[in-house]
Design goal:
Helix content: 40-55%
Bound molecules: magnesium ion
Low-confidence stretches: 11-42
Mean pLDDT: 84
InterPro entries: Acid_phosphat_B-like, Acid_phosphatase_pln, HAD-like_sf, HAD_sf
Pfam families: Acid_phosphat_B
Signal peptide: 1-17
CATH class of the largest domain: Alpha Beta
Strand order of the largest sheet: 3-2-1-4-5
Shape: globular
GO molecular function, one term: acid phosphatase activity
Keywords: Signal
CATH topology of the largest domain: Rossmann fold
Distance between the termini: 52 Å
CATH architecture of the largest domain: 3-Layer(aba) Sandwich
Largest sheet: 5 strands, parallel
């Protein structure tokens, strides 16, 4: 019983911490300073819950406290959860920044296990699909990979820039890209390596520009990628939407006799626009939108 109470207290502290502002991300020490006392958190949560229950009409006698539908989790940002769902399902489009109130939520999602688990489910499906393919034996099957937030992660940059709540700054983002330090997204790399073992050739197709080729290659190699067939970068100065540019490049692949058996990216603009590929896979990305 004592253990259960202790676990509940810890949970409440974590829930309360998730609503802290962005300064809580700067390091473990500053995060500790942001935490209110457990006693305060418990009392405040209990008080809020009492108010909510008494003022809201009940539609069911049973009222969950914990879990994704619970009253406590609402305090942890469930409205942001709904916002994220709308983003991932392409119901929400053309947004420029993450809502300021969701910085804590998106930060927890990205840095915690949730993002990785969601990515794993996507990649598990992609691997299972790839294993069912009957290849022609002529080496023409290719799989298109996006790079940013698909093959490499820019999370170190976004963790220092409000997790998408601040307007995109091309200058500082490109400075980060030129460091060539973006870490791998391990789930995607698992798919990449699996495809090579099956005889399917990976093709990188990215919105990064041609002048970033050398650093992009270095970054990919440093992070354990090798054996790709092509790295397609956007010509400098090209004025085209992501959908037009990427679908055009896929069309060229197809015209050259390649069969695009799969296509994976974090943006809808990676996977929309014919020819999309025989099957598409959408990785999660609540940090930014590219139309
Ligand atoms: Mg991307």
């Amino acid at each position: 019983m004592a253990m259960a109470t202790a676990k509940l207290l810890l949970l409440m502290v974590l829930v309360a911490a998730s609503s802290c502002d962005g300064s809580a991300w700067r390091g473990p020490l500053s995060r500790l300073r942001m935490l209110p006392t457990a006693q305060y958190v418990v009392e405040a949560a209990a008080e809020r819950l009492k108010e909510d229950v008494s003022s809201a009409p009940l539609i069911h006698a049973l009222h969950p406290l914990l879990g994704s539908a619970g009253d406590f989790s609402r305090r942890a940002g469930v409205p942001c959860d709904s916002w994220r769902l709308a983003v991932e399902t392409y119901n929400k489009r053309d947004w420029t920044t993450v809502p300021a109130s969701c910085e804590g939520y998106v930060g927890h999602y990205m840095l915690g296990g949730h993002y990785r688990r969601d990515s794993r489910v996507v990649v598990d499906e992609a691997v299972a699909y790839a294993e069912t393919l009957n290849l022609g034996g002529n080496g023409k099957e290719v799989w298109v990979f996006d790079i940013d937030e698909t093959s490499l992660s820019n999370l170190p940059y976004y963790a220092n820039h409000g997790f998408g709540t601040k307007p995109y700054n091309a200058t500082s983002f490109n400075e980060y890209v030129l460091e060539g330090s973006a870490p791998v997204l391990p789930e995607t790399q698992r798919l990449f390596k699996k495809l090579i073992s099956l005889g399917i050739k990976p093709v990188f197709l990215t919105g990064r520009t041609e002048d970033q080729r050398a650093i992009t290659v270095a970054n990919l190699r440093r992070q354990g990628y090798s054996g790709w067939m092509k790295l397609l970068l956007k010509p400098v100065g090209l004025k085209a939407t992501a959908i037009a540019y990427k679908s055009g490049e896929r069309q060229k692949l197809q015209d050259a006799g390649f069969v695009i058996v799969g296509n994976i990216g974090d943006q809808w603009s990676d996977i929309l626009g014919a020819p999309e590929g025989a099957r598409t896979f959408k990785l999660p990305d609540p940090l930014y939108y590219i139309g």
